[in-house]
DNA sequence: TGTCCACTGGAAGGGAGGGCTT
DNA sequence: AAGCCCTCCCTTCCAGTGGACA
C-alpha cells in the first residue's frame, strides 16, 4: 500500500462519489417541513400558544417509540414559538434537555445544574459536584425568577431520568411554579416507554400529563416517502438501485417504524458502496450495512465497559462456547471469579454481578431471563446476544482488554 | 401439600473522589 | 484545614419467590 498511496489517493479523487450532502443523516438535521406529523404539530402548537400571551401553557406528555419523530416535532414547534416570541419581544424561553446523555442530565443534581447552565449560569455558579442539591435548586430558582417569563422545558427521554434518579425529581419540577413569583415553567416530557407513567407517583402523573400526545409509528409507505426526500438531498441522482429505498423502508417498518434506523441503514449502505468504488447502492450493500451497524454497536459498547464487566462478559462468552443452551448466574459467576484471579482483578460480589448482568442485558449484549428450576432454585438464564459472526472479534477485544493469553 | 433451592432485588451504608463553606 | 454534602460503585444483609420434588 505504501508505495501505491499516491495512486490510491489519485483514484480516490477520481472516483465518482455517491454522496452529495451527508448532513441530512445527522441527528441535528431539521428538514424544512416534517412529514406526516401535521396533526401532532397542530396539537403541540395549540398547547404551547398561550406562552405568547405570557401565560403558562399546560404541561404535556408525549409518548412514542424511537424514531417516530417526537423530538424533531417538538423542537420544531417550540423553536417556532421562540422565533415568534423573539420577534415580538415576548419573554419565552425554550430549554431542551436529553436526560439520557450521561454526565449531562441523568441525575437530579446534574439535571438542575444543567437547567441553570441553560439559563446562563456557569460552572463557577454551580460546580459539577459538591453543592447540596437544594442549594442548586435555589440558585436555579433565583436565576429563573429574575424576570417575568415563560420557560418551556423539554425533557427528552424522561423515562431514563426517572429510572436512574427516581420520580422525586419530577415532583420537585412540577411544583416549581409555586416557588416562583415572576417566571413560569411548562414541562414537556418525552418518553419512548409507553407505560412509563404507570410507575409514577399519582400527583406527578396528573400534573405532568395535563395533556398527552401519542406519536404512532410510521408505516412503510411513510418511511419510504421520508427516505426518498432525504435521499434526494443526500445522494447524487440515480445512484440508488431501484427498490433499495423500498426495502430499506420495509426493514425499518418491520422494526417498529423507526425512521432513524432507516436513515442510518441508508447512510451506511452508501458509505459501503462508495468505499468499494461502486457506482450504485445495491441490495447487497443494504444487508452488509445491517450487519455492520449491529457489529459496530456491539463492539463500541464492549470496548467502553469497565474491566469487571468485560471479565464477566468473557466468562459468558467462554461458557457459551463450551455449553449448549443457557448459562446460569452461578456458573457465570464461578468462571468470572476464576478469570479475575488469573488476571489479578478483585472479584465483585455476586450481588453486584447480579446488577452487572442486568446492565448488560439492558445494553442488549446479553439476554437474561429469570427462570425457576423448582427444587433447584431460581436464577437467570443468560445467553449472549451477539451474532456469531461478531463473536471472534469480541473475544479478541476482551482478551486484549483483560490481557488474557488465549 | 409443603419444602427448599439458588438465586433475585430491596435497603442501608461505606468509602473514594469530588467540591463546597468557614 | 475542618466539616459538609454530593455522586458513584460497591458490600453486607436479608426477605422474597416459582416451581420440581418428596
Specify the CATH architecture of the largest domain.
3-Layer(aba) Sandwich
Question: Which stretches are low in confidence, meaning pLDDT under 50 for 5 or more residues running?
Answer: none
How far is it from the N-terminal to the C-terminal residue, by CA? 30 Å
- List how many beta strands DSSP finds: 8
How many helices in DSSP terms? 16
| N-to-C order of helices and strands | HHEHEHHEHHEHEHHHHHEHHEEH
Mean pLDDT: 87
Using only C-alpha atoms, the radius of gyration works out to 25 Å
Please summarize the sheet with the most strands.
5 strands, parallel
| CATH fold label of the largest domain | Rossmann fold
- Which percent range fits the helix content? 40-55%
- Give the neighbour order of strands across the main sheet: 2-3-4-1-5
Could you say which overall geometry the principal axes of the C-alpha atoms support?
globular
CATH superfamily of the largest domain: P-loop containing nucleotide triphosphate hydrolases
Structural class: alpha/beta
How are the elements arranged and paired?
Layout: H1 5-14, H2 38-48, E1 60-64, H3 70-87, E2 92-98, H4 108-118, H5 133-144, E3 150-156, H6 158-165, H7 168-174, E4 184-191, H8 202-208, E5 211-215, H9 220-234, H10 244-254, H11 259-275, H12 283-303, H13 307-322, E6 327-328, H14 329-342, H15 350-362, E7 366-372, E8 378-384, H16 391-402
Parallel strand pairs: 1-4, 1-5, 2-3, 3-4
Antiparallel strand pairs: 6-8, 7-8
Helix pairs in contact: 2-3, 4-5, 9-10, 9-11, 10-11, 11-12, 12-16, 13-14, 13-16
The structure holds a DNA duplex (22 and 22 nucleotides).
Amino acid at each position: 500500500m505504501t508505495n501505491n498511496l499516491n495512486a490510491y489517493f489519485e483514484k480516490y479523487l477520481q472516483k465518482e462519489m455517491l454522496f452529495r450532502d451527508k448532513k441530512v443523516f445527522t441527528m441535528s438535521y431539521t428538514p424544512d417541513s416534517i412529514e406526516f406529523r401535521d396533526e401532532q404539530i397542530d396539537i403541540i402548537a395549540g398547547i404551547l400558544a398561550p406562552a405568547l400571551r405570557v401565560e403558562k401553557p399546560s404541561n404535556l406528555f408525549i409518548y412514542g417509540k424511537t424514531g417516530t419523530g417526537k423530538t424533531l416535532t417538538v423542537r420544531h414547534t417550540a423553536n417556532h414559538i421562540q422565533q415568534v416570541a423573539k420577534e415580538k419581544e415576548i419573554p419565552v424561553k425554550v430549554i431542551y434537555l436529553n436526560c439520557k446523555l450521561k454526565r449531562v442530565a441523568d441525575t437530579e443534581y446534574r439535571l438542575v445544574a444543567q437547567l441553570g447552565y441553560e439559563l446562563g449560569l456557569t460552572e463557577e455558579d454551580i460546580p459539577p459536584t459538591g453543592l447540596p442539591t437544594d442549594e442548586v435548586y435555589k440558585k436555579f430558582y433565583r436565576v429563573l425568577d429574575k424576570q417575568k417569563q415563560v420557560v418551556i422545558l423539554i425533557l427528552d427521554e424522561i423515562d431514563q431520568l426517572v429510572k436512574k434518579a427516581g420520580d422525586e425529581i419530577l415532583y420537585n419540577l412540577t411544583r416549581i411554579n409555586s416557588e416562583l413569583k415572576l417566571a413560569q415553567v411548562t414541562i414537556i416530557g418525552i418518553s419512548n416507554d409507553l407505560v412509563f407513567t404507570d410507575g409514577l407517583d399519582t400527583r406527578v402523573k396528573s400534573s405532568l400529563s395535563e395533556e398527552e400526545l401519542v406519536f404512532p409509528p410510521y408505516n412503510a409507505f411513510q418511511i419510504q416517502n421520508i427516505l426518498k426526500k432525504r435521499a434526494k438531498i443526500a445522494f447524487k441522482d440515480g445512484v440508488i438501485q431501484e427498490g433499495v429505498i423500498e426495502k430499506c423502508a420495509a426493514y425499518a417498518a418491520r422494526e417498529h417504524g423507526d425512521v432513524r434506523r432507516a436513515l442510518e441503514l441508508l447512510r451506511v449502505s452508501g458509505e459501503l458502496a462508495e468505499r468499494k468504488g461502486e457506482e450504485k447502492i445495491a441490495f447487497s450493500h443494504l444487508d452488509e450495512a445491517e450487519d455492520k451497524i449491529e457489529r459496530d454497536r456491539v463492539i463500541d459498547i464492549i470496548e467502553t465497559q469497565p474491566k469487571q464487566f468485560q471479565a464477566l462478559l468473557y466468562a459468558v462468552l467462554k461458557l457459551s462456547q463450551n455449553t449448549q443452551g443457557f448459562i446460569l448466574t452461578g456458573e457465570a459467576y464461578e468462571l468470572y471469579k476464576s478469570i479475575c484471579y488469573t488476571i489479578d482483578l478483585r472479584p465483585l460480589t455476586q450481588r453486584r454481578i447480579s446488577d452487572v448482568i442486568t446492565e448488560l442485558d439492558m445494553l442488549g449484549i446479553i439476554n437474561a431471563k429469570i427462570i425457576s428450576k423448582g427444587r433447584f432454585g431460581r436464577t437467570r438464564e443468560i445467553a449472549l446476544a451477539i451474532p456469531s459472526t461478531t463473536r471472534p472479534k469480541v473475544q479478541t477485544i476482551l482478551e486484549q482488554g483483560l490481557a488474557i493469553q488465549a
